[in-house]
Amino acid sequence: MINALFSDSSYVTAKKMLDVSVLRQEAIASNLANVETPNYKRLDVASSFESQLQSAISSGNSASVATMQPELAVDTSAVSGRADGNTVQLESEMLRLNENTVENAAETELINQSMAKIRMAVTGKS
């Protein structure tokens, strides 16, 4: 029964999305640290990852979701509005930081709910 809880598609998807939000947090931190670095290019989770994840979720195969690895990539949609060629915009990064924090909290709550099910299965108590 416990193995079934860890392979449940909602748990696997929430865990993968938590991995993505942690990686995005690293990208945002790097972007903020380099906001004044000439020619620095904004980083984010590779844009192809979202469509790949959607396809994997649609297939219903939690094993394919579990094996996916998000990666950081240069954000090709970010355009420099500055003379030094830096593509990071402080206000946008701060907004993304807040959004990512909310997403991380929601994903953590989903994982906590799955852990509560496991705790109940092991101990018989909620």
Blueprint (SSEs and pairs):
Layout: H1 2-6, H2 9-33, E1 43-45, H3 47-59, H4 62-67, E2 72-74, H5 90-123
Antiparallel strand pairs: 1-2
Concise structural overview:
This protein is mainly α and 126 residues long. It is 66% helix and 5% strand.
Overall pLDDT level: 89
* SSE order: HHEHHEH
Helical amount: 55-70%
Distance between the termini: 16 Å
Beta content: under 5%
Oligomer: single chain
Shape annotation: elongated
Largest sheet: 2 strands, antiparallel
Radius of gyration: 18 Å
Q: How are strands sequenced across the largest beta sheet?
A: 1-2
Number of strands: 2
Per DSSP, the total helix count is: 5
Low-confidence stretches: none
| Class from secondary-structure proportions | mainly alpha
Features:
two-stranded antiparallel ribbon; 5 helices
